[in-house]
Amino acid sequence: QNNASIMSVRPTVLDVGCGFGGLTMALSPALPDQTILGLEIRAKVTEYVRLRIVAQRKENPTQFRNCSVMRTNAMKYLPNFFAK
User: Fold this and answer.
1) Mean pLDDT of 1-11
2) Which of 60, 67, 69, 74 gives the lowest tally of CB atoms within 10 Å of its CB?
3) 3-class secondary structure for the chain?
């Protein structure tokens, strides 16, 4: 894929306050045609979820390609995730 197509991908499902990523991870195989983004404010928890996703991708190479996690303050920046 080229950078332009990667940059144009927008999440279709947001898991606001994803915590340790349980719902984000469960939604990934359940919604394979959707792009799932977990939002978490705590840096260490966000890193935990990121590593969890990486581990699942290694263990299941064809799964968990449609999810990711981002550290953000959803209360402050949530409107930025929706098309205007």
Assistant:
1) 67
2) 60
3) CCHHHHHCCCCCEEEECCCCCHHHHHHHHHCCCCCEEEEECCHHHHHHHHHHHHHHHHHCCCCCCCEEEEECCHHHHHHHHCCC
